[in-house]
Fold:
Amino acid sequence: MERKIKSAKPKARLSSVANAIRLIRAFSDDEYEIGISNLAKRLGLAKSTVHRLASTLIEAG
Structure:
């Protein structure tokens, strides 16, 4: 039996996933090292949130 996945409405998306994607996109070829404080300011997130997201992404490889 095949399950169909419905598209989530924009309001229904997971904000942590969206923030992780924004964090990844903050890096570029010219700027591949950015500090937590700088990322937090750029993304408008708390430093603790950015640290948690970065740690999770690093652990995931």
Summary: The mean pLDDT is 86. Residues 33-61 form one domain. Residues 47-60 form the longest helix (14 residues).
